[in-house]
Amino acid sequence: MHYTLISTFEQIIEDVANAMKEIAEFVEKEVIEDLPKEAQKDFQSSIADYRKYAAILKEFKL
Description:
By secondary structure, the protein is an all-alpha fold. The chain has 2 helices and no strands.
């Protein structure tokens, strides 16, 4: 049971990291261009944070 839980948590972490990456890519391709310049800067900052956190999550191992 212990190993199953660890495996499940690792899968959840990987899924969250992948979802964060997909969200960042979607926003970059579909949303940013239609926003005012200041909002574009804010989103670019958020996307950079998403990518950073996604990379950290992918490196995280239990």
